[in-house]
Specification:
Length: 211
């Protein structure tokens, strides 16, 4: 039995988002094929995702110097507890389905903040004499990326700081089985939006079998 973490970062209602519709299609198809697996959902726009701010940094520095967790300031404890909870939740999953839009060539800010909770030295990667080594080998990621224009091919591909960034983070922490489903072009060609959606769903049908 595997545990799948379904991570979304889009404030829209599901029926109003092409990306979320494709993500739900993937999850529903996966459930049909893997009835015993556990699927846990996290909506980042409905979750407290602490930023790496002065409280988090101060807490890390205090703990590194020997301060006990209970002796941290209340704000430091609360933020660090929430941060660590997200880290542990990610580590405990086996597979990940991530759904994000492209906003101004990159991911929503809350997704960046979430990835900061995922990329943690000593938990998801470690430093060695030969450089950093990821600790989460053997896991899988499907990333559904929705965009009004086209980013899966040139010239837009060079401006894609969404899936390319998430892939870089995943590879860094040891997850190299990473595939992207592009849901794109809906704003550029609104009259073809449904056909673009159908194309993405066809990719779902192919990729879910090997996920």
């Amino acid at each position: 039995m595997s545990k799948v973490l379904y991570i979304t970062a889009n404030p829209k209602q599901e029926n109003k988002s092409f990306g979320l519709r494709v993500g739900r299609e993937f999850i529903n198809d996966y459930k049909k094929l893997n009835k015993d697996d556990v699927i846990e959902e996290i909506d980042l726009f409905d979750t407290y995702v602490p930023m790496v701010d002065k409280d988090i940094i101060n807490a890390w520095e205090k703990l590194a110097s020997g301060t006990e967790f209970q002796n941290l300031k209340e704000e430091e404890k609360n933020k660090l507890a929430a941060f660590s909870s997200l880290t542990d939740q990610f580590i405990n999953a086996d597979k990940y389905v991530i759904v994000t839009p492209i906003w101004n060539f990159t991911i929503p800010a809350v997704m960046k903040a979430y990835l900061d909770t995922v990329c943690v030295a000593g938990k998801t990667f470690k430093y060695t004499e030969n450089g950093p080594v990821g600790l989460l080998q053997g896991k899988k990621v499907i990333h559904v990326q929705a965009s009004g224009g086209f980013f899966s091919e040139e010239p837009g591909k060079n401006l894609d700081f969404g899936t390319n960034y998430i892939r870089t983070i995943m590879n860094f922490i040891g997850i190299t089985d990473y595939k992207t489903i592009y849901v794109e072009g809906m704003n550029q060609f609104p009259e073809r939006a449904e056909s673009f959606l159908d194309k993405a769903i066809n990719n779902v049908d192919e990729l879910v079998l090997s996920f």
